[in-house]
Specification:
alpha/beta, Rossmann fold, seven-stranded parallel sheet, six-stranded parallel sheet, 11 helices, Glyco_trans_4-like_N
């Protein structure tokens, strides 16, 4: 099968540092190539996958030092190239929300759009009613709650390559917080839990300009506590050590998280997760196996001692079955086949000459 993967241009594929969607696209792309498909990736310069690549922009938007730039114009330029080459592919798989809808109406049946963000935004319902011919994939069942009428074809959880994460069989002595400093991610809650539990907390997180004031006002004053260590943003090469050596990952979110990639990154290292009952969390965490889902700080503090009873090898095993890149890619291939009228679960994968 000839497949185009169209990624956002904010980060490279995979990202050098923070970035969820682009990381998933990278692992999906490589897994599809491993399954024998012919994949072309449309993405920002600097991307590195095993697929053929068409550069949609010379460099990722977030890391471009140019003071003035247009994310809209850059994506439209890439979509122009995709549209010019659309006939080269059996299927076009978009990861850029809904920006492509007006330009691909005539071939909507040969497209698939994975929605990676939150969908409880004011203007979205009308848009998905206007362009209801586009097949959609959610990354969790909870994600689709605001748009139950949309043209959902399935829910496919994210997956990552097991070789990218090193399993650690022994628990570490600190709690980990990985991701982004922002009000909805609740680093303040993670700090409070760690201090109350008497366990060191290491925070590896980026601070976007939009969240700089929040960081300076609400979080920086908390970092002086002797149990708290702020590391800053880290890349993929550092994640296995950071997550694998942790006692547990704290995921104390306060928003309808569509998926929560860091949870399965921790599982890949064998590290249990203590997560708030928000968004997709209950779909991702196997209660009492890969971690605990909590509703209060008191429950989270209690869970910091109970995670010691969890089997780290079992956590890794669950990750490989449910959240590997291969599992994700096979689910997508089955959906591609359905969309193209090849709905046969026993259909052999087409080999590329």
């Amino acid at each position: 099968m000839k497949i185009a993967q169209i990624a956002p241009l904010y980060e490279a594929v995979p990202p050098k540092l923070y970035g969820g969607t682009e990381r998933v696209v990278a692992h999906l792309t490589d897994a599809l190539v491993d399954l024998g498909h012919e994949v072309t990736l449309f993405a920002a310069g600097g991307s590195q996958t095993s697929a053929a690549q068409t550069i949609g922009r010379d460099q990722p938007l977030r890391l471009d030092p140019a003071p003035l730039k247009s994310d809209l114009a850059s994506h439209l330029n890439m979509l122009y190239e995709v549209r010019q080459r659309a006939d080269e592919f059996d299927l076009l798989h978009f990861h850029i929300d809904l920006l492509h809808f007006p330009f691909f109406e005539k071939i909507a049946g040969r497209t698939l759009t994975t929605l990676h963000g939150r969908l409880d935004l004011k203007d979205l319902p009308g848009t998905y009613l206007h362009w209801k011919q586009f097949p959609l994939v959610s990354i969790s069942r909870h994600q689709r709650t605001p748009l139950p009428f949309a043209n959902w074809q399935g829910t496919i959880h994210h997956g990552l390559s097991p070789v990218a994460y090193t399993f650690k069989k022994d628990a570490g002595k600190y709690l980990a917080f990985l991701g982004r400093i922002s009000p909805e991610k609740r680093p303040d809650r993670a700090i409070a839990i760690a201090i109350a539990a008497g366990i060191p907390l290491k925070i590896a997180a980026k601070v976007d300009n939009a969240d700089r004031e929040y960081f300076e006002r609400d979080i920086r004053p908390l970092l002086s506590h002797p149990l708290i260590e702020f590391i800053g943003e880290i890349g993929d090469s550092e994640k296995s050590e950071f997550l694998g050596n942790a006692h547990a990952l704290l995921f104390p979110i306060d928003w309808p998280e569509p998926f929560g990639l860091v949870m399965i990154e921790a599982m890949a290292c064998g590290t249990p997760v203590i997560a708030w009952r928000c968004g997709s969390v209950s779909e991702v965490i196997d209660e009492g196996v890969t971690g605990f889902v909590v509703d209060s700080e008191a429950e989270a503090i209690d869970a910091t001692s109970r995670v010691m009873d969890l089997d780290r090898q079992a956590i890794r095993d669950v990750y490989e079955v449910r959240f590997s890149a291969d599992a994700m890619a096979r689910h997508y291939v089955h959906l591609y086949q359905q969309l193209l009228g090849e709905d046969d679960p026993q259909l052999p994968l087409r080999k590329i000459a």
